[in-house]
Automatic annotation (TrEMBL):
Keywords: NAD, Oxidoreductase. Residues 286-471 form the Mannitol dehydrogenase C-terminal domain. The lineage of its organism: Bacteria, Pseudomonadati, Pseudomonadota, Alphaproteobacteria, Acetobacterales. Residues 27-277 form the Mannitol dehydrogenase N-terminal domain. PROSITE patterns: MANNITOL_DHGENASE (PS00974). It comes from the Bacteria. This is NADPH-dependent L-sorbose reductase. InterPro entries: 6-PGluconate_DH-like_C_sf, 6PGD_dom2, Mannitol_DH, Mannitol_DH/Oxidoreductase, Mannitol_DH_C, Mannitol_DH_CS, Mannitol_DH_N, NAD(P)-bd_dom_sf. It comes from Gluconacetobacter sacchari DSM 12717. Pfam families: Mannitol_dh, Mannitol_dh_C.
Amino acid sequence: MTILPPFGPVPPAVLVPSYDRPAVRPGIAHLSVGNFHRAHQAVYLDRVLARPGNAQWGILGIGVMDDTHERAKAEAMQAQHGLYTLTECPADAPDTVRVIGAIVDYLHAPDDRAAAIRRLADPAIRIVSLTVTEGGYYIDESGQFQLDHPTIAEDLARPVPHTVFGLATEALRLRRAAGTGPFTILSCDNLPHNGHVARTAFLAWARARDPDLADWMAAHVTFPNTMVDRITPAVGPLDITRLNAGSGVDDRVPVFCEDFIQWVIEDKFCAGRPPLQDAGVLFTGDVTPYEQVKLRMLNASHSMLALPGMLMGYRVVSDIMHNPDVVALLEHYLARDAEPLLQAPPGMELHEYAAQLLRRFSNVAISDQLPRIASDSASKLPVFVRATAEGTLARGTDAARIAFLLACFAEYLRGHDDTGAAYDIHEPHLAPGDMALAADEDPARALEMSVFAGWGLGDHPAFVALFAQTRAALRAGGTRACLRQLVTPGEPG
Ligand code: CS2
């Protein structure tokens, strides 16, 4: 038994940090500490800290959202001194449980935002990373930062801002005044060119606040693009009990995930970086092919599972992977729709990547949740599916699978599955009026929803007709029958 305060005794099978944790100081501040951060970036930093000479690269976790869930997480992380268990679940081998020690300090910004800004201004902080979700960058369909969005407009008027853009900008103001130099802003969200998107958002916020400071940021702050990957399910109360029973540790905030992990980063760090290459990170001059493959194959497949799956009554990813029609849908989508528009990154083979995805989704040990993936589809579909939809329509190839997915999204918004069972919809970024468009008696009007703005779908009357027919088929015969038609060779979808 290892005694690891404040966990107390930790069973020998649980791996614990091998390094001198009290000597570790934060060099990275992470904004918005979700499960994904704790299962992904924190794991790489844990590996970095396990090697000698890297004690300056601990993580300061900063909670940003002012809600009870975030506050409870902050209290638990503080009570546990930043420690938590991560259970990694391979498909065909026993789970591994490790205590991750990389988060050495944690603060909840809404408690004292000025203090959070001062911590970011500490010269020891050389990277500010963030995971704020696809919709968290306030970028519209033409790639502009939404300065007139109420959340942003309100924040710009506050002396002490609340948003990640404001916290980082005000910290950079202090650093410039003190001559301590910039930090790198490192987006770890699922967006193409997430560094460019972050740059657009942070600089636009700063420019609206203080053009002179924005110029300084534009000249000094770097925003590397990154591709991140690790399937990390949500953790509910039953999971906590199950995970703690498995680990033998009494952890208030355990996390679990698959055993696959990948991080590809552009090497553009204005204030230095940890030797992440020693921890398995791939550095490259151009992340584009990696992120495109990941977003358009993995994440789009996830949406392709989640939206039809919710309607068919499935709630668990590995369960729906037993449905041969669903597997055929994914295989066809990947091979016929997504792959022809992609370029394989060096050393990668797209068919093999697709086959590996199907194996990852089938992993019963993680039993990932379809509601998690379906949530915020209004932000996800433009990121994961738009390019494939546009490419398919431009090439004039079969758009039936895309019409099916978008039609399932519109039907999903009705809030109940084909058996009538209700589910919760979490769509914080749907614009007012979108729900009415989805429910309009003319099924094609759903294509006017804000989520499809800029896709140009209305310029393709054949697609609009196909979409309307697919919705009619979903309503008339149910999702399973509609899918069966779509994947059965010889029968038009
Ligand atoms: C999922 C992702 O939320 C989603 O839509 O596709 O969270 C996915 O699990 C991760 O990107 C995997 O790296």
